[in-house]
């Protein structure tokens, strides 16, 4: 209700059940993700470095990956009965997202001459990095989320695969180091036990 800025009375009038409200919320978030992440990134396919940088920033932005919105995605994976509904609403978009990331990797590999790299593997690696960071957001309040550090970590992954690309800012690197891998790794096994799917993670 808070996510949609609606009063409890309005919600009860329009939705027969909590499940119906949750489905409507997921449909809204899926459409928002397509409009605000997939479409802008796809328009930059001709410039894969810029497109991937934009992807990371949009995917981790507070408007897309707020704790409340992340919780809606995960709610569908808390109950097995909801997973088919998720697939019906988001399955195609997940496939489109994965295909887009893979195409960007293919373009960047071709442009950089790094033909030893496997586009599928590199794309899966980036999606996995983003997935773990989303899991972290789900367990934090907005005030405790360091989005600059999350972006820096994602770009560090890309930079490790494509040396010379995705230059970091000093501030972003310092934030990533301050937040540190130790604290994140310490919570990772707990988060993975509740692993779910979000947009782009098929």
Describe the structure.
The protein has 9 helices and no strands. It has 202 residues and is an all-alpha fold. It has one domain: Orthogonal Bundle (Tetracycline Repressor, domain 2).
Low-confidence stretches: 6-15, 170-177, 179-196
Radius of gyration: 18 Å
The global form is globular
Instruction: Estimate the strand proportion.
Output: under 5%
Total domains, how many? 1
Under the CATH scheme, which architecture would be assigned? Orthogonal Bundle
Strand-pairing-aware structural class: mainly alpha
- Counted beta strands: 0
CATH fold assignment: Tetracycline Repressor, domain 2
**Main sheet overview:** none
Report, as a whole number of angstroms, the end-to-end distance. 27 Å
User: What is the CATH class?
Assistant: Mainly Alpha
Mean pLDDT: 78
What is the helix content?
A: 55-70%
